[in-house]
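Lab manual, section 2.4: Encoding a predicted structure.

Procedure: take the sequence of the chain (142 residues), apply the prediction step described in section 2.3, and record the output as structure tokens. A sample record is shown.
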Amino acid sequence: MSSTKEFHVTFDCAQPERVARFWCEVLGYVVPPPPKGSDTGEEYDRSRPAEEWGARFACVDPSGVGPRLYFQRVPEGKVVKNRVHLDVRVATGLVGEERLAALEAECTRLLALGAVRERLLYDGHDACIVMRDIEGNEFCLD
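Recorded output:
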């Protein structure tokens, strides 16, 4: 029996490229090169049927370590809380006020990108900040 070694995370969204570019900024990811035979992603997109233009976009970890993120357009909007969310690890190993300061600094950076702060969860030792991306998907700064 083989085990899975590689996976990607798929986001349903209204504007795949916009959401993908947000996550590129959050995570330091990049847009992968276009498929073989196309000079640009836009050229590849335009080679597909018109109803599929802008329907998908991806971003990847330039180091090759993190999972690929894939964004696909869906007709329905977000209605309820995510069943799965990303934890963006920005304060690993930090505790107390030092952890809180690192989380707040990253939160400030992400707010400028269009993220929304939901709430701080802090017990005096451990903390995380619950946020939403530009289409309302929950994620945590951890």
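Check your result against the sample. Helices lie at 16-27, 41-46, 96-112.
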